[in-house]
User: Fold this.
Amino acid sequence: MLDIQVKNKLIKITGPDRYLDRPEELACYAYDAFVVEALPDAVMFPKTTREVSDILKIASKFKLPITGRGAGTSVCGAPVPIQHGIVLCFSKMDTIIEVNTRDRYIVVQPGVVNGDIQNALAPFGFFYPPDPGSMNTSTIGGNIAQNAGGPRCLKYGVTVDYVLGMEVVLASGKIIRFGSKNVKDVTGYKLSSLFCGSEGTLGIITEATLKVLPKPETVKTLMVTFDNLDNTANAVTDIIGSGILPAAMELMDQMTLNAIEDSANLGLNREAQGSLLIEIDGVKEACEKEMKNIIKKVKENGAIHIQEATSDKEREKLWAARRSAYGVFAKLAPDIVSEDVTVPVSKVPLMIRKIVEITDKYKLKAGVLAHAGDGNMHPMIPADRENKEEWQRVEKAFSEIFQAAAELGGTLSGEHGIGLAKSSYLHLVMNKDTIDFMKTIKQAVDPDLILNPGKFV
Ligand SMILES: Cc1cc2nc3c(=O)[nH]c(=O)nc-3n(C[C@H](O)[C@H](O)[C@H](O)COP(=O)(O)OP(=O)(O)OC[C@H]3O[C@@H](n4cnc5c(N)ncnc54)[C@H](O)[C@@H]3O)c2cc1C
Assistant:
């Protein structure tokens, strides 16, 4: 509970309608899509940068934790207010400020949903490449804070590659602006890279200028199934190794295919041990040539069924299957843990074998879903956190999966971030001096440690 005088000061900023502190209201902001929950003392809905700045000045004076929140779709506990304090929810800062396709940028407030950006750009024949599976819900503030990726990031890169400029409110309440609307800008430190992936621990994002691209002339989509998971993974490394760069290359194992089929009845091959959803885009002639080469490669790796989408409707159906994977898995048990270890693409077959070996060892039902073309694995384990014995096996399995990824020269997270889920594993991929360097930055920017405390740094 906040001190009544502090509460009154905060209410003065937004008015009582945008300040919540009843337990039943706070409960809605206590969780994300991970498995840890914590109640904030209050939730506020700022509408302007000035309001954010005024709230942070008070938070700084009274040393109150501040946790930013977009849509709460993080899968690593990043927006969970583990040390309580105030949650700043950005659902009322959701304006698209400017669309400029001539100079190829869009300016947005942090609460704008990724999918709304795509819809705003579509009439101009443009798109914003980062496409997290949560794109119809998750916000740009959350995407930047997590440096989100998605299927087509294989070819196009992740959020950090598209942030041209930002406005950020620091813990002190000071407002800083960096970057610009220029595609090229090497004026000073590349601060957008520092804030991308910082999980709200360095500052609160109140505006972003994002690079946008013209839509490719042609898109071709292929669903390929295999009777062997090794062959599926080997096809990935063969295609990438041959110099073809698809826009997306998504791998699903048999359990994932069946979970989708049980839920959506899309006609997927239930017998297949593995599948690849491959998409290429670009100039028509180049796409046709690449598609031929891809088909040759998957056949060489024992593909049993190849289906090319012949219309936008068919293409959308294939993608709907892929996007529903997390949701259908979440129905299999009270909880679901989905991780995203990432390895060099040549190690994809080995890492998949390791994941299967480890989850079998701990007698866990697990599905493998991967943005396989960039080595980003999403092992998903449905389980029940109330079942202590089972939960211990889940934790041990993930600990070994992180270790295995590190041993293969991989990393803990390709896109989901660290949050609460993986902070105790940083040492596997970073030495102490590197972790200390991040702490030095945090201490310099937020000396009272009020911004999203208790997270990875
Ligand atoms: C079904 C499903 C599919 C997903 N697919 C993908 C995927 O393909 N790729 C991927 O990368 N992720 C994916 N995710 C994870 C998640 O959607 C992303 O991490 C997303 O970027 C989170 O956005 P959000 O708006 O929900 O942010 P939240 O979850 O609310 O917050 C995430 C972090 O951002 C911080 N934050 C939010 N707004 C601000 C702000 N204005 N200023 C400073 N910090 C802020 C929060 O404090 C927190 O640390 C998926 C999640 C689900 C549930």
Notes: The CA atoms of residues 300 and 453 lie 51 Å apart. The first strand starts at residue 19 and ends at 20. DSSP finds 15 helices and 18 strands in the chain.
